[in-house]
Amino acid sequence: MRCMDRTRAQRRLRELREEIAGHDHRYYVLTKPAISDAAYDRLYDELLRLEADFPDLVTPDSPSQRVGGAPIAGFGHVRHTLPMLSLEKARTDREFELFDARVRKALDGEPFEYHIEPKVDGVSLCLHYRDGELVLAATRGDGEVGDDITANVRTIRSVPLRLRMAKPPAFLEVRGEAYMDHAGFARANERLVAAGEEPFPNPRNATAGSLKQLDPRVVATRPLSAVFYAAGRTEGIRFATHAEALACFREAGLPTPSLTFVCGAFREALERCHEMKAREGELPYPIDGAVVKVNRLDQWERLGLKSKHPAYAIAYKPKEWLEQAETRIRDITVQVGRGGTLTPVAELEPVFLDGSTVSRATLHNADEIRRKDIRIGDAVVVEKAGMVIPAVVRPIPEKRSGAEKTFGMPDRCPACGGPVSRGQLASGAGEEVAVRCENLQCPAQKARRLEYFCQRAALDIEGVGGIVADKLTESGLVDDPFDLYRLKPVQLATLNLGTAEEPRVFGEKNAAKVVAALERSRTAPLSRWLFALGIPDIGEITAFELARLHDSVEAVAASAALRGIVRLYALRDEREQVNPRSRLRKPKDEAEKAAREARVTEIDAELSNLESALKAVRVVEIGPVGAAAVVSFFESSRGRAVVKTMKARGIRPSSETADGGLAAGPFAAKTFVLTGTLESMGRDEAKAEIRRRGGDVAGSVSRQTAGLIVGGDAGGTKSRAAEAMGVRVIPEAEFLAMLGRKPTPVTGPKQTELL
User: Is the pTM above the cut of 0.70?
Assistant: First the structure.
C-alpha cells in the first residue's frame, strides 16, 4: 500500500537521488564518505521502495539504474565525431626537448605553459552528456570507430549519470580511462576463484574483459572506476585552457587526475614528470608515463596535428621507466614473414609485465642471439620495447644449470621445408643478417601476404587475418590475395577454422561480411591499393603521395615521374663519381679530366631538365628508394600480373587526384588551413577532398596559405592571423561550391576541436 501521494513521492525521489548521488561522489570520487554504510543503505532502500510504488517515476539517472539491465545481444558501433588520437612518445630527455623546440618554433616566441598529468594505464573510453545526462559511452576502438558500452559504463559508480551543474551544456563529450585499482583487482579475482572460474591475469585485462561483458549485471559486480582528462566535442561550453576544462569536469562530478602540474620552462616540465613518477604510489591507478600538453587551447589550433598525433601533446615515457620482468625461455621457434624472412621468437614462461601477460618475445635474428648469448632454457630479463613489443634484454648466466641449449637457425624453412639463404648486401660487403625462405609458394608467406593485404590500413577486409588467413591458404582456396575475389560465399562459410576432429566453421554471417568488404574494396582509394600490394619500401605516406600523382594503377606502372626520380638520383651519383674536382678520384691525366668535364656538362643539362619536370608534378615525399621499388615492382612479372589481374577482376581503385597529375581547379598546387567544425563532412574527409584535387592542408596560417576554410564554432586565432596576413577566408558554403558539392548539413550538436 502506498504511503504517500504522487506529488510528495516525486519530490522525495528527487531529494533521494540528489542525496545518494552526492554520497556516491564523496565516496567513489573524493574518497571522503560523509555517512556510514548503514545510513547509506537506508537511503537507498527508501529509494527502491518509492520507485517500486511509483514505477512511472523511475528516471535514467536514478542510482537504482546502476545495477544493470538485461543482457544485450551485442555491441553496436559508434563513429567518433573527433578521432581519439594516440600520442607521440618521448623515450629520452632529448626527444622531449625536441618536442619543446618544435612547440616554441611553431608558436614563434609566444609565451605558453605546459599542463602535466599522469598517463593512466587503463582502457580508453569516451562519454557523451546531453543537457547534463549521460546518453552514450564508447570504447576507443581503432580511434575512428568504437563499441557502444553505455549499459556497462552506467554501472560504474564513479561516473555520474547526470552532471552536477546548475546549467549543464547542451552537449559535452569527455574522454578518459576505465581502470581497476589493485585492491579491487584482488577482490575481483578472489570472487572468481571462489566461484571456480579462471582469475584475470592483470588489472588492465580485468577492466577490458569487464567492459566487454554483454550482461551489465555482471559488470555491476566488478570494482571498476574511471578518470577523465580531455574534452571532445562540445556545444554550449568553451574552455580557454586544458586546466580549465579539468576544473569544470571536477565541479561537474567527474573524476579527474589527482596529480597534475602547470609549468612553463622545459626543465621545470621535465622535473615535474620525474616527480610524478616518484609519487606514483599516491595515485589509485597504474600509470605508464606522463602526458605533457600545451595548456592554452587556442594554441592547440595553431599547433595542429603531426601525422596521426597531436602536435600540442606528447607522452613522456623514458626508457629507464620501462618495467622489466624475469622469466625463462621454454623454447625458440621460427616465424616466416610475408617476404620470407625467418624470425626467431622466444617462447616464454608467462610473466606479468607492464599491464599484460607476456608469453612470447622477438629475438630479431640469429646474430642478435649470438651477440647476447641467449640459450633455450635461459632465465632472462624481458621488457616491452616501445611499451608494446616484448623483447629479451639479456640472459642471466648465473642462473644456468648446464641443461641450456644453444640455438641455430634452421637450414630449411619451418613452414614449407624449402631452402633458405642469406642475400648479399647491396654494398657487396658480405651477407645480410636476415635469413629468407627461397620458396615464393611457401604457405606461411602466402598467409602473411594475405593478412597484410586485408589489414585495416590496406583494404580493410574485416575477418581475414590470423587463423582465417592461415586456413584459406592451407586449404588451397587462396594462393594469391586476388583469389579472394573468386571465392563463393559458401566456400567462406564452410571454411574449417578448427581441426578434422573438432571442426569450427567460419559461418554465413562472417562470410557475408567478407564478401561485402571485398565488393567495397574494388573501388577503394588508390593509395590503399598501392599499400595493400606490399611493394617493398612503400608505406602509407608514400602510397598516398603516389596516389596524388597518378589516377590509376596503370598510370603508376607506366609513370614517367617515377622513372625520372630514379634517373635523377642515378645522375647525381654519377656526377659525384665523374667530377674531375673530386679529391677521392682525381683524373689521371688531362685527357681524362676533359672527358669527365664533358660528361659533367651533359649530366648537368639532363639534371636541369629533370628537376624542372619533376617540380612541375610536385614530387614531395617520394625518394629514390621508393621510386626504384615501384618501378622495379611493376616491371617484374609479379607487377605486370597484378595490373592484368585487377583489370580482369573488375577492380577500379578510386582516384585521389585528377588527370594523373595536379588537378586543374581551385585547389591545385595550393595550401589550405581548416578551422572549426564543418557540418557537411568530417575534417579528415575535407582534407582528403582537398588533397584529391591537388591541394595540401597545413595546421597553421602563413603567408603561403591560399585560404582559411572556416566551419562552425571556429576560434578566432586563425581568423585573426588570416586577416593580418591578407589570407582569404572561405566559409563552408563556398568551400562546398569549390568542391562542386551541395550543402548537406548533419543534424545534431556541433563540435569544437578539443581533443
Answer: no
**How many C-beta neighbours within 10 Å does residue 646 have?**
20
Which residue is catalytic, options 89, 119, 293, 471?
119
- Fold that domain 329-421 belongs to in CATH: OB fold (Dihydrolipoamide Acetyltransferase, E2P) (2.40.50)
Place of cell 647491396: 426
Same fold? 329-421, 443-521 = no
Distance CA 485, CA 524 (A): 14
Q: What three-state secondary structure class fits 705?
A: strand
CA 98 to chain centre: 22
Residue 601 CB partners (closer than 8 Å, separation 6+) = none
Distances (CA, A) of 42 to 16, 35, 45, 59, 170: 11, 11, 5, 20, 34
Residue 605: Cβ within 10 Å count: 10
Between helix 624-635 and helix 637-648 the angle, nearest 10°, is: 70
Q: For residues 408 and 366, is the Cβ–Cβ distance under 8 A?
A: yes
Model confidence band, residue 199 (pLDDT cutoffs 50, 70, 90): confident
What is the gyration radius of the CA atoms in the chain, in angstroms?
30
Provide CATH code, domain 89-320.
3.30.470.30
- Is residue 216 within 8 A of residue 68, CB to CB? The reply is yes
What is d(CA 600, CA 595) in angstroms, rounded to the nearest whole number? 9
Q: Which residue has the cell 615492382?
A: 633
CA distance 562 to 570: 12
The string of DSSP letters for 326-379 reads EEEEEEEEEEE-TT-EEEEEEEEEEEEETTEEEEEEE---HHHHHHHT--BT-E
Beta-carbon contacts of residue 185 (< 8 Å; ≥ 6 apart): 200, 202, 203, 206, 223
- pLDDT the model gives residue 377: 94
Does the annotation count 119 as an active-site position?
Answer: yes
- Classified as helix, coil or strand, 404 is coil
Q: How far apart are the first and last CA of the chain?
A: 52
Give the range among 293-297, 532-536, 741-745 with minimum mean pLDDT.
Answer: 741-745
Partners of residue 314 on adjacent β-strands: 292
Tens-place pLDDT, residues 273-283: 989 888 888 88
Q: Which of 7-16, 349-358, 456-465, 509-518 has the highest mean pLDDT?
A: 509-518
Above 60 in pLDDT, residue 300?
yes
Question: What are the tens digits of pLDDT across the range 476-493?
Answer: 899 999 999 999 999 999
Amino acid (1-letter code) at residue 42: R
412, β-bridge pairs: 419
pLDDT at residue 41 in the model = 65
According to CATH, what is the number of the domain 443-521?
A: 1.10.150.20
**What's the confidence (pLDDT) of residue 742?**
63
b/e 57-87 (16+ beta carbons within 10 angstroms → b): eeeebbbbbbebeeebeebeebebbbbbbeb
Place of cell 609479379: 638
Nearest CA-CA partner of 289 in 572, 86, 18, 529:
86
Topology (CATH) of 6-67: Helix Hairpins (1.10.287)
Domain residue limits, the chain: 6-67, 89-320, 329-421, 443-521, 528-648, 671-739
Indicate the pairing of strand 114-120 with strand 389-395.
unpaired
User: 671-739: which CATH architecture?
Assistant: 3-Layer(aba) Sandwich (3.40)
- Lowest average pLDDT, out of 100-114, 373-387, 662-676, goes to 662-676
